[in-house]
Amino acid sequence: MTHSNIKSNLLTPTNEDTLGPYYPISLCDNDSMDLTKIRSGIINEPKGEKIIINGCVKDINGELANGCLLEFWQTNSDGIYRTPDNETHPDLDPWFIGYARNRTPDGNFTLTTIKPGINEELNAKRAPNITLTIFSDGIMRVVTQLFFEDESSNENDPLLRSVPEELRSRLMIKNDGQNEEGIKTYKIEIIMAGEKETPFFDDFAS
Amino acid sequence: MTQYGRTIEIGPTDNTSNERTPRHPLHLIPDSARASFAPYAPYNYGINPGEADMTRLAAGRPRADGDPIKVTGTITDQFGRPIRNSLVEIWNANKHGRYTHIEDQSGLPLDPNFLGIGRTISDENGNYEFWSIRPGEYLARPDIGRWRPKHIHMSIRGGSSRLITQMYFNGDPHNDADPMRILMGDNFDKNIGKEYDTPGKEFDCGYQFDIVIGGKNPTFFENDIA
After folding, report:
1. Residue B136, SS3?
2. Among candidates B20, B42, B223 on the partner chain, residue whose Cβ is nearest the Cβ of A59
3. Is A26 a member of any domain?
4. pLDDT tens for each residue of A154-170
5. B46-213: what fold?
6. Which among A51, A56, A67, B58 is least buried, having the fewest CB atoms inside 10 angstroms?
7. What confidence tens digit (pLDDT) does each residue in B101-141 have?
């Protein structure tokens, strides 16, 4: 990783390193991939449309990328992130956190959540999206942001617009019918490397 | 208008790195979308007593084989501001270079007294400490004779601060050929624990490993938990 050589008083960061293949599975024991349950065993659910996203992470050969640690981050159905700055926001949903993580043993994952809303906190209408951070063996953390196909707000989303048009479909979570309980299901394939690779974003240089 | 940032380098001789490293330069994030890239992890850790002492399975149990070591440090942002109350997760191999992880099929000896997994939380000043056994190196690529040097994995998570890294040991003969060490270049020094004496203590020695979390994610300082 290279950093600016402009002289500054900033401390040099510790280098990120790979996750390695042996991230302790038990450290995820209390992590849930169901964001519609703020804790286990309660009946209350957050506001909004409950959805299920089935996804996978693949490598340059199209093989599933096993052992990745995945972190998800999204707004509630009103488009509000649960950050400390928003602690007293009237549209914060007390039944929704918006942060999930888990280790995928084989490269597949299922996230149960609510459809994120449109975020307008920063002078820009953000189309509904989910930030995904991937920690893996062989590579430092990579981040991307995933959108929902058929959202009219996608058209003016500043992040999507910054990505070449032909790559935008790679960031789209696709409709995939519904399950037997009538919950809408979606699918997404993350490709870490190669010709069809998912666009990833630089949160150090930008 | 498309703008690009860094291109991630592939770790030499690391097959997984070759398979999983994006080839395309990373895309820059427009200002109006930048804040959305900073997850805020809730504090829900519930750490049990004794989790920071990885030298034994529980109080009163025998010490694991190998050299007990103490690792201490301060976690700050690039401005030197302490990162408080953040979760530090630690995992390392035993003295033989074997993890207790179910997917470590190396066949190296296990130690019935060593789990190799610990957790702690940084204090009000960003300080943390834990105890472990100095890990062994292990042969990562038998086909080309490449070893992984001794290292301790650490994950730091709290609020918007996020880092997964490894602490290495000065003078390990396998450091120079390690793929990620090669990518770190001159900055490798930041990832070495600085050895210090612990006279009269029950440790072989201590290592000071100060951690600076870089990047532009906002760090929320006003929300300290009691």
Report:
1. coil
2. B20
3. no
4. 999 999 999 999 999 99
5. Protocatechuate 3,4-Dioxygenase, subunit A (2.60.130)
6. B58
7. 999 999 999 999 999 999 999 999 999 999 999 999 999 99
